[in-house]
Design a protein that fits this description.
The protein is mostly helical and 131 residues long. It is 64% helix and 0% strand. The protein has one domain: Nucleotidyltransferases  domain 2 (Four Helix Bundle (Hemerythrin (Met), subunit A)).
């Protein structure tokens, strides 16, 4: 197993943990939108980074999903979600976590759909071993 594949698998495991937290919090009473969508954003981010690691692509430390996806697209990759979806999910990583007036850019269902699509895509890529 290559170091890239090992790191990709580690990131995918962490993405699945974030998605599990998202799933639990989605219907939990009293949990706000920012907290729930933070975990969807984190799952999406780690899924994208898993594929980047698998491909041997370097990336800077960022939570910007659109930037990360753009790096993949620039190298000929196709993602299963629209860049606009990633743009709407990105602010839940940092900005909305420290603001008490949250603008709802995505619904919880949309956030979950984005994360699930990226998780499935990353898992498929890792299963194929990056081929």
């Amino acid at each position: 197993m290559t170091p890239q594949l090992e790191e990709a698998m580690r990131l995918l495991r962490m993405a699945k943990r974030d998605h599990a937290a998202f799933a639990v919090l989605t219907n939990a009473p009293g949990v706000d939108q920012a907290t729930v969508c933070f975990h969807a954003q984190q799952a999406a981010e780690k899924a994208i980074k898993a594929v980047m690691c698998l491909r041997g692509f370097e990336y800077r430390r960022t939570h910007d999903l659109e930037e990360l996806a753009g790096m993949l697209i620039d190298r000929g990759e196709t993602l299963p979600v629209d860049l606009m979806d990633l743009r709407r999910l990105t602010p839940y990583a940092v900005e909305f976590r420290y603001d008490d007036e949250i603008i709802h850019l995505v619904t919880r269902n949309e956030a979950g759909r984005i994360a699930e699509m990226l998780l499935g895509w990353a898992a498929d890529e890792i299963t194929r071993g990056g081929r």
